[in-house]
């Protein structure tokens, strides 16, 4: 179960000896100085697991769960941490397979005794919660800290999977033949992306969550609150899982058993992860089932005893996206939906047994309803509207914050334009596109505070450099220059903490650093802007430098379209 690299490690004599052993088929155990070799406490089980991986053909795009930590030893290795999900790029015969980490967008080789197959093990509707999370939730229930209807979040672990992240939906969809794009075509005569109409186009605005049972006791502390939204077709989640931060406005009286959650004002200038106005776009389900909106409320909690953290679902609701009783006068309809307890596939679980509904009709029934937890939102119907901004999105089902629609539109337009410029008749050349913007945009999209900063700087520069009569191409070119000047360097700023939705102190630190970096690059009245290289190459940060790779400046579809047919393109 021990894998030794025979390319470029050790002394020359050592290398020769390892090559001799490898070529002669002599598989004696060779002493290794890697600490991970001693982690195999059950060699027979590990060897059987490795052998199963070796003998099975895994297509690119297959996802694996990291089972052991591993620090990069030499160039080309991928540093991994236990619990991370990595995506297979190439299955190699030497037991060191090529993987990509979607979070960091880094790529490198990993020994297969450090991974286990993930794809196919998690139901697409609900992921099996981590054992430690389940244990912690059960302990909270045993101590009466949370109601019986609170459970480990169903959607939180799914958000770690690529297929439920927004950037994955932005990868161009191929036709069945894999010889053309199904949703990405550039009209050179109009300098616009071809719009793709779909069946459903809705604008949803989250209003409030009311009567949410509070956690109790000194053993638990709530660190953060959020609502997740996705599209569900009766069999599986078919869209990305979108997350919106929620707040409680004032400290609630300890005698009050419930609390109300609020959202940021419906302002397009709000932070991306706090924007309560969402755009939903989808076609009818291929399964023939009616589509529904699935909401899950959750709280990021910490045990004050063990300091462990976990995400606890505290109510869910499912609403059909196709309304049988549409509004008569306006295109907007308000909803005030009851929240269920338990998991999303358990429809008859009360969130809190003390709020049982005893009556269903008349005034008494209405009073009973007001005692229960609910989520309030509105849906505006835009199905019949033709809008360049809305219809420039992909045909795949998506849920997007309203304040990043234009940003996504710029990305898709630039990608379509660059593919159109190629001499290949379908644009499917495997030659990488020389573009910092295209190659790093997906990485930036997973850091909403960078998208927020990009929008603000672009609007400022738009007022300064563009006229009202500026063409779409001029706007797009300014947007890309703004991105490459101000945002791309931030992706490599070593003092910037990693983005974590639930780590509010780290997010506040990130926002301060981002603001400071951008100010240092903006020209002042009496001083020139600071050279970005002098900032990034700070000699005090040499321990955090990483090698430059061409992936940072070159975009290729092969990296994202796993069944891309390289045998038919040039």
From TrEMBL:
Alphabetically sorted, this entry's keywords are: SH3 domain
Record domain SH3: where:
59-120
Mention any one GO cellular component term assigned to this protein in its UniProt record.
cytoplasm
PANTHER family, per this entry? NEPHROCYSTIN, NEPHROCYSTIN-1
Query: What name goes with this protein?
Result: SH3 domain-containing protein
Q: Which InterPro entries match?
A: NPHP1, SH3-like_dom_sf, SH3_domain
State the signal peptide span: none
- The UniProt regions of compositional bias labelled Basic and acidic residues, in chain numbering, are 17-27
Keyword Lyase (UniProt):
no
> Which ranges are annotated Acidic residues under compositional bias?
28-41
Q: Name one Pfam family in it.
A: SH3_1
What's the superkingdom here? Eukaryota
Q: Which GO terms describe its biological process?
A: protein localization involved in establishment of planar polarity
Cite the PROSITE patterns for this sequence. Answer: SH3
Could you tell me which residues belong to the region Disordered? Answer: 14-41
């Amino acid at each position: 179960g021990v894998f030794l690299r025979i390319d470029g490690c050790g002394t020359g004599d050592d290398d020769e000896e390892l090559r001799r052993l490898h070529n002669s088929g002599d598989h004696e155990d060779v002493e290794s100085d890697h600490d991970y070799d001693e982690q195999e406490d059950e060699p027979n089980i590990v060897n059987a697991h490795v052998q199963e991986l070796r003998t099975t053909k895994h297509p690119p795009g297959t996802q694996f769960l990291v089972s052991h930590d591993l620090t990069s030893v030499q160039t080309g290795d991928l540093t991994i941490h236990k619990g991370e999900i990595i995506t297979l790029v190439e299955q190699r015969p030497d037991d060191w397979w090529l993987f990509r980490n979607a979070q960091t967008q880094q790529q490198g080789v990993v020994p297969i005794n450090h991974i286990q197959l993930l794809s196919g093990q998690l139901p697409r509707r609900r992921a099996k919660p981590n054992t430690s999370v389940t244990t912690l939730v059960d302990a909270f229930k045993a101590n009466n800290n949370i109601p019986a209807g609170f459970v480990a979040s169903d959607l939180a672990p799914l958000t770690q999977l690529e297929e439920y992240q927004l950037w994955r939906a932005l990868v161009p969809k191929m036709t069945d033949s894999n010889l053309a794009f199904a949703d990405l075509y550039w009209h050179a005569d109009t300098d616009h992306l071809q719009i793709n109409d779909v069946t459903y186009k809705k604008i949803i605005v989250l209003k409030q969550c009311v009567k949410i049972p509070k956690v109790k006791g000194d053993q638990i502390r709530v660190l953060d609150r959020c609502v997740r939204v996705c599209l569900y077709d009766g069999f599986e989640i078919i869209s990305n899982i979108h997350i919106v931060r929620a707040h409680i406005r004032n400290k609630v009286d300890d005698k009050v058993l419930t609390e109300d959650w609020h959202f940021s004002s419906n302002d397009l200038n709000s932070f991306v992860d706090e924007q309560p106005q969402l755009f939903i776009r989808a076609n009818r389900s291929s399964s023939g089932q009616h589509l529904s909106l699935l909401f899950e409320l959750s709280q990021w909690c910490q045990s004050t005893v063990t300091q462990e953290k976990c995400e606890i679902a505290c109510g869910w609701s499912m609403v059909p996206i196709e309304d049988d009783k549409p509004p008569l006068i306006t295109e907007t309809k308000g909803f005030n939906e009851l929240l269920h307890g338990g998991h999303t596939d358990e429809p008859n679980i009360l969130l809190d047994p003390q709020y049982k509904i005893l009556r269903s009709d008349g005034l008494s029934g209405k009073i009973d309803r007001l005692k229960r937890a609910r989520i309030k939102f509105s849906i505006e119907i835009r199905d019949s509207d033709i809008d360049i901004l809305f219809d420039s999105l992909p045909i795949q089902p998506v849920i997007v914050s309203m304040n990043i629609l234009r940003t996504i539109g710029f990305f898709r337009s630039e990608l379509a334009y660059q593919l159109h410029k190629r001499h290949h008749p379908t644009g499917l050349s495997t030659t990488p596109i020389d573009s910092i913007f295209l190659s790093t945009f997906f990485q930036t999209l997973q850091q909403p505070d960078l998208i927020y900063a990009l929008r603000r700087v672009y609007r400022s520069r738009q007022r300064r450099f563009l006229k009202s009569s500026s063409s779409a191409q001029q706007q797009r070119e300014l947007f890309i220059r703004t991105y490459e000047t101000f945002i791309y360097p931030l992706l490599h700023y070593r003092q910037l903490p990693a983005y974590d939705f639930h780590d509010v102190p780290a997010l506040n630190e990130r926002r301060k650093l981002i603001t400071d970096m951008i100010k240092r690059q903006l020209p002042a009245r009496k001083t020139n802007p600071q050279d970005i290289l002098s900032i990034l190459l700070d000699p005090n940060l040499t321990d955090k430098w990483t090698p430059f790779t061409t992936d940072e400046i070159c975009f290729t579809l092969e990296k994202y379209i796993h069944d891309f047919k390289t045998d038919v393109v040039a």
